Amino acid sequence: QLQAFGGGLVQAGASLRLACHISGIQKDYYLIGWYRQAPGQERELVASIWKDGKNTYYAGDVKYRFTISRDNAKNSVSLQMNSLKPEDTAVYYCNVQPPLAPYWGQGTLVTVSS
Question: Cα 55 from chain centroid?
């Protein structure tokens, strides 16, 4: 599974850093993504990163505010979230990309108050 940690309740404009611990996956996946699901919304891809750590993707509304990074030696992927907005409120998950059902963890809740 890929387990996400680091969520919490913050005010708008604050920062949070999420961490994803990768374990037990059977294949050396090259692409890892952060996803989020807001109340009443479908799960969406927020950012992804290739194994080389150099090639990244960001959804339009988080670009320039979020930064994804990867430490292959520690089997971890991080998501630095700055200038958080109330609309960033969601449960955040990490998974391979495209996502595989067995690898969804419980996610970590990020709540941004206005």
Answer: 16
State the pairing for strand pair 16-22/2-5.
antiparallel
Q: Which two tokens stand for residue 34?
A: 């952060």
- Say how far apart CA 108 and CA 114 lie, in whole Å: 20
How would DSSP label each residue in 17-38? EEEEEE-S-SS--SEEEEEEE-
Residue 65, helix vs strand vs coil: coil
The kind and range of the H/E element at 93 are: strand 90-96
- Rounded to a whole number, what is the largest CA-CA distance in the chain? 41
- Identify the CA nearest to 3 among candidates 66, 98, 100, 92: 92
- How much is the pLDDT for 32? 94
Rounded distance, CA 112 to CA 9, Å? 6
What order of strands is seen across the sheet that includes strand 66-71?
2-5, 16-22, 76-81, 66-71
* AA identity, residue 92: Y
Q: What is the pLDDT of residues 30-74, one digit of tens each?
A: 799 999 999 999 999 999 999 888 899 999 999 999 999 999 889
